[in-house]
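Thread: quick sanity check before group meeting

JM: Hey all, I'm pulling together slides for Thursday and realized we never actually wrote out the predicted structure for the chain we discussed last week. Dropping the sequence here so it's in one place. If anyone has concerns about the input, flag it before I start.
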Amino acid sequence: MSQTPSATKRPLDVPSADPAEDSRAALRRGVYGLLIALSIGVMVGRIFAVNSVDKLGQENELVSRDVARQVADVTKAGRIPDAAEVEQWQKEARAKHALQRPFLSANDRSRWDTIRSLVEHGTYAIDDIIAEPNWDTIDMVQHVGSDGKLHLYSSKPPLLATLLAGEYWLIYHVTGASLGQHPFEIGRFILITINVIPLWILFLLLIRLIERWGRSDWGRIYVMAAATLGTFLTTFAVVLNNHITAAVTTIIALYAAIQIWYGGQRELRYFAIAGVFAALTATDELPALSLFALLSAGLLWKAPRQTLLGYVPAALVVVAAFFGTNYVAHDSLRPPYMHRSATNPADNWYDFQYTRKSGDRPIDSYWKNPVGIDKGEPSMTVYAFHALIGHHGIFSLTPVWLLALPGIWLLGRRYGLRDLALLIGAVSVVCVTFYICFVKPLDRNYGGMTSGFRWVFWFVPLWLLAVLPAADWLAATRWRRAIGYILLTLSVISASYPIWNPWTYPWLTNFFLYMGWAKF
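JM (edit): ok, ran it. Output follows.
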């Protein structure tokens, strides 16, 4: 990463020597703080409201009918039920007809099932968990377990669920409360700790970077406004997912690497941090192996001794954990999604029948005959169009990313951050090309029933840095700023549209379906 006067070897947390600039920076930080407070408030408020709200009225109606019927039966027998008796009937009816749940999709329930099973039953198999009301999922596979019997497992790589199970283990053993008994209280608490707090860290690190390299007050504030309100990261804060985790690990790894590359840091802790979090990003998002590979090669070239002593061992710990948890869970080094052979039935864990409860009729796996958007798009051209500028488009739903295109060029050409620009551009091209061109037709489903093309959400911190020089350029004139306002407004609309549940179609998709321009 090349050096210029605007990117001197100064640690990012060292203030400038200009008192006037320090004063302006303090004012900007105040604005950043307000934006972060607004964003965190919105996320936490939505987490507190997490519920299948469309089920609430139906559930209340069913409970009321049951209780009314019991009251009528007792009254006919010549007795008036007391309040305690009616309250007990209500509890029983509520348990019988429970429809509400804080886990909004089969996708996130798949990981919640694993977390519960690990802590409560000591196994990765989720058979017992999905048998409970409201804990079902379609994101699961089936294979023979260590006991020689067929079991159901989450289709997600087990490392993230294993790490998150640690927090639930503490809650479960310290308080005695379980997710089965208290899904709302425990689920919401965990979501705040694993989504909101990490995003707060992302915001703080981003502030340091834009303060270092931004050239206008408006441009810096614009990037933070986009970060806090205009991307799908905050949208997904209400559900358990790997995309927020990957975005946060991306900026931590990048921040440490920037300290090494541009700040001249050679302390082993920066290399260890870069290694751990770059590897974690790759475990959460497989195409992020490209970021991991480029950072590894760049740091090895820049500081070979420290990279070998700090970066490599730290990264190897994560790599070992990824394959180790996968082997313990599935007796295989390959994650579940890689067991989908079209020619070897024994190696296709998605083609199976199962029963949720003993005595139930067997059910086919959802993935034997997926429906709607999950059937996949047969045409790569059509898929590319809609993934980029169509109903699930990266640029049509979040048009602020249009600024990242010239921003990458400006980052390298005018800001002297050539190597950072090359990193962002190369990883973006490689990964987006992979997501569009190198997935099977069945997997061309735009991320399934979801409010955005979620496989690129981990790029958010990279693309925000690319937006920075473009935002500085927009700041120069009123008409340019007007363009920026329009792009940001449309992005915020897309991020805010799925207010209750991110596992819904984007507003643009619903419009396409309404107009008859798309069919799933």
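AS: nice. The chain has four domains: 1-49+213-240+370-520, 55-96, 102-181+345-366, 241-338. The radius of gyration is 25 Å.
JM: adding both to the slides.
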